[in-house]
C-alpha cells in the first residue's frame, strides 16, 4: 500500500489511530500507544506488523514507524532505533473480529462480546473449512468437529481458542462453531462436552483480516508509504525438519 512520499509526525499517526480505535478501548493491563520514540519524530514510512521481530528491527530505519499489533518484548524494545506504536486490544475491540467475519462471508454480524463477532453461515462443516482455507490460506487448520451443519459462527481474531471462554459463549448464544486460533487441549475437551465445533486457523492468520484493514485505513489517511508485513509464526517446524533429516539418514542419502 502506497501513497505519496511525504513525511508525517508520529503524533499525526497517533491521532489517526485514535480515530480508528481509541486507545482507551484497550483491555486493562494492555500497554498500547507509543512505546519507543517521540511524538515529534518525523517518519516517511509506516510498517504494520503482527509482531515486531529481531529481523524486522534490523531493517527499520529511524525514519520508519513500526505499528506492532502485539506488545513488544522488553529485550527487543531496547534494540529499536525507530518509533514504535502498539495497537493491540483497542483494535481487537474496535474492528478485528468484524473484519474476520467479513472475510469469512458471515451475514447479520453482531457483537456478543467486545472481542468477538457472531454471524450467520448456513452450510456444512466442510463448507466452513473450505471458506476458512480459501479466505485465510493458513498453514494449518485444526478442528474439533462436533456437528456437521453450521448455522451460526463466532469469530475471534488470534487468541480465541486459548481458553474455553468463547466456546462457552458460543454455547450460551446458540452458535455452532468458533473460528479463531491457539486451540488448547482443555478448550477442545470443553468444546466436545458443550457440542461446539472449533476451527483453529492459527493465531497469526486469523489476525490477518484486521491487519489488512488497518493498513488500508492508514494508507487512505496518511501521506506516506504504508506497508503490511506478512504474519510470521514464531515457532519453526523443527520436528518435521528433524524427521526429514532422519529419513534421509536411514535411506543413506
Strand and helix layout:
Layout: E1 8-9, H1 10-20, E2 33-36, E3 42-43, E4 45-49, H2 54-59, E5 64-68, H3 74-77, E6 84-86, H4 89-103, E7 107-113, E8 116-124, H5 125-136, E9 142-144, E10 149-155, H6 165-173, E11 177-180, H7 185-194, E12 197-200, H8 203-221, E13 225-228, H9 238-251
What would the principal axes of the Cα set say about the shape?
elongated
Extended strand count: 13
Rg is: 20 Å
The profile of the biggest β sheet is: 6 strands, mixed
- Ranges where pLDDT stays below 50 over 5 or more residues in a row are 238-246
Distance between the termini: 45 Å
Average predicted confidence as pLDDT: 92
Number of helices: 9
Q: What level of helicity do the residues show?
A: 25-40%
Structural class: alpha/beta
Beta-strand percentage? Answer: 15-25%
Order of helices and strands: EHEEEHEHEHEEHEEHEHEHEH
Can you walk me through this structure?
The structure is a single chain. The protein is α/β, with parallel strands linked by helices. The protein contains nine helices and 13 strands. The strands form three sheets. The protein has a six-stranded mixed sheet with strand order 7-8-10-11-12-9, sandwiched between helices. A five-stranded mixed sheet has the order 2-6-5-4-13, with helices on one face. Strands 1-3 form a two-stranded antiparallel ribbon. Helix 1 packs across helix 8 and helix 4 crosses helix 8. About 4% of the residues have low confidence.
Q: Short description, anyone?
A:
It contains nine helices and 13 strands. It is α/β, with parallel strands linked by helices and 253 residues long.
Amino acid at each position: 500500500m502506497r501513497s505519496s512520499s511525504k513525511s508525517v509526525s508520529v503524533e499525526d499517526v497517533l491521532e489517526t489511530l485514535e480515530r480508528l480505535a481509541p486507545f482507551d478501548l484497550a483491555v486493562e493491563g494492555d500497554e498500547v500507544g507509543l512505546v519507543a520514540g517521540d511524538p515529534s519524530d518525523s517518519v516517511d514510512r509506516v510498517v504494520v506488523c503482527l509482531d515486531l521481530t529481531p529481523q524486522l528491527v534490523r531493517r527499520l530505519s529511524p525514519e520508519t514507524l513500526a505499528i506492532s499489533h502485539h506488545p513488544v518484548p522488553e529485550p527487543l524494545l531496547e534494540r529499536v532505533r525507530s518509533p514504535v506504536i502498539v495497537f493491540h486490544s483497542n483494535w481487537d475491540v474496535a474492528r478485528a473480529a468484524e473484519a474476520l467475519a467479513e472475510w469469512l462471508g458471515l451475514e447479520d454480524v453482531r457483537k456478543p462480546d467486545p472481542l468477538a463477532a457472531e454471524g450467520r453461515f448456513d452450510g456444512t462443516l466442510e463448507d466452513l473449512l473450505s471458506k476458512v482455507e480459501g479466505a485465510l490460506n493458513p498453514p494449518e487448520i485444526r478442528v474439533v468437529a462436533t456437528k456437521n451443519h453450521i448455522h451460526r459462527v463466532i469469530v475471534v481474531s488470534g487468541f480465541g481458542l486459548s481458553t474455553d471462554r468463547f466456546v462457552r459463549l458460543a454455547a450460551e448464544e446458540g452458535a455452532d462453531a468458533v473460528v479463531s486460533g491457539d486451540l488448547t487441549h482443555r478448550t477442545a475437551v470443553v468444546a466436545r462436552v458443550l457440542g461446539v465445533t472449533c476451527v483453529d486457523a492459527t493465531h497469526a492468520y486469523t489476525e490477518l483480516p484486521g491487519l489488512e484493514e488497518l493498513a488500508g485505513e492508514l494508507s487512505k489517511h496518511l501521506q506516506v508509504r504504508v506497508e503490511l508485513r506478512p504474519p510470521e509464526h514464531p515457532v519453526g517446524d523443527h520436528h518435521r525438519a528433524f524427521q526429514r533429516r532422519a529419513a534421509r539418514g536411514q535411506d543413506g542419502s
